[in-house]
Fold these 2 entries.
Entry 1:
Amino acid sequence: MKILLNLILLFCSIFTFAQIKSDSLLLVKTEWINKNLDYIRFDSDTLTYSISDKRHDLYFDLGKRTLTMKERFYNGGAGMKEESIRFKIKKLDKNKLVFHPLDSKIDLDQEGMRKLMYEPFFSKKEFILFNRENVIEPVNFKKVTFIASTCFGTCPSFSLEINRDGTLFYQGRIYTKEFTGNFHGKLDKKQMISLHKLLNRSYIASIKEKWNQNTKPVDNPRYNYMVELVNGELIEVSTNDQHPILDKLSQYFIHIPEIVELSKSSKKHSFEKPEITAYKIVGIEE
């Protein structure tokens, strides 16, 4: 009887471990979003989220259909301190993630959290998110212009224009290494397909209409996105703490000199000027 009980416990432990590992792999390889632009992205032990227009990065642990989000910070001479909030994972598959808080907001309020921004997670009874790869907003663009400022560090400052036929113009201003100055190039068919996919999954039209940066300006570069559509409409977004669903798109633009062969140009290209100039890093010349 004892042997049987031990075997049952061992089987349950193996099953639980396998489920947690499976959940972890599914979470990490997927970005999750909904029409309200609630978003979450998992890494090996950290996550990035935007809930109620507030972006934040946290640590996380997974249990048996439970998720614990944790904020870690140094508290003077007391060393490392940790604050956390627990969630129940109601549904998780390759298409859908549903979760809700297990902790009470009243209890968290009484604990006097200093760093963990838990309030946005109580804005809804539960959060229903979908696999980003399955949620597309087609962007039929004529021209895309991306302008990046520098920061209080070595963030590259440059302007980039990509046209529908793949031709591009690049102007590196500071911290752009050998690509400082004026350049031109052209994306091939495969590179254009990658750009189209990123734009179609960027939610940039929804971000323009529904999203506002609700965090204060931070020590990040300001990004201006200007997307001119074939029908003449212009989509413009300006931020220096962007919605995280734009991270892959901005990284694509930042790494253009590594993706496309650029040639030095003797002429200075005239780039579109942004109408939105919020979140400028004062004292840093572009």
Entry 2:
Amino acid sequence: MIVILKQNTTEAQMQSLTGWLASQGLDVHISKGNFETVVGLIGDTSKVDEELIKSLEMVESVRRISDPFKSANRKFHPDDSAVQVNEDAIFGAGHFGVIAGPCSVETEEQIISVAQSVKNAGAVMLRGGAFKPRTSPYDFQGLGAQGIELLLEAKKATGLPIITEILSIAHLPLFEDIDVIQVGARNMQNFELLKELGHLKKPILLKRGLANTLKELLMSAEYIMAGGNEQIILCERGIRTFDNTYTRNTLDLSAVPVLKELTHLPVVVDPSHAVGSSKYVESMALAAVAAGADGIMTEVHNDPLRALCDGAQSLTPEQFDKMMKKINIVRQAVAPGKEC
């Protein structure tokens, strides 16, 4: 349930109302927008006297949210949320950012070289896998704790904040200095992990699972938000469909405008994992920008032919630089208020 307050509501009136609602065993969330203040109620609202609340002078209207996701719902929080990692890396609410780096951290030279290249091209955050969830147990599984140490060295050398994927609750102590924790497609419904991440004061990038619906993605975000962590970036990375002969997955770009309608959380797109081939990454990245994504996450390797993981879908630094120039052109073309 959400309660929309009139514009002239005083702080004292608001505190009186929210205190009363909280006394009824409800979690109360206040969202102050440009034109209205929304009081969101989470919990068992079946016993709440809706007519009594409507009768209050400060109340504009009362609405019930039928969707199972509450905190992530745009009705609950009408204005776009922004997730700020540092001064340059901000996603959502009109801010756009590009995350780039290799699929896997391999050596100190490799990760620092790529970090410097993507930063020079305009990336605002460095990605790199330390722990790798691989389909085959015989494939490279990542450097683990050593990979995180190398990512931190790259951050020290370039100033770029870093994002890397977590596979297990047991690894959480290793992620203390990581700026953004990524929950990969295979862990999107690892609810125990999501609950733990809800207790952190750290941004989480949550990827959609290979066979999951958008509602399921938002419910996974709800698990994190229910724990108190509202710094969530959603990521569309392609889904498995009946025809993935020519691409690794099917990039569902319709997810971008649909999610933007359903939720206030920022949405980024990972074209690299979606298509699985570097020759398609640029076109899909540009399409994602045109669709309204709040950012792009792409793989870049200084020597894709010798990459230990996903070299086929990795751009070279030169290709990434060219793509960034085109992204800036598309962003200008679709900027709000821009006339064709």
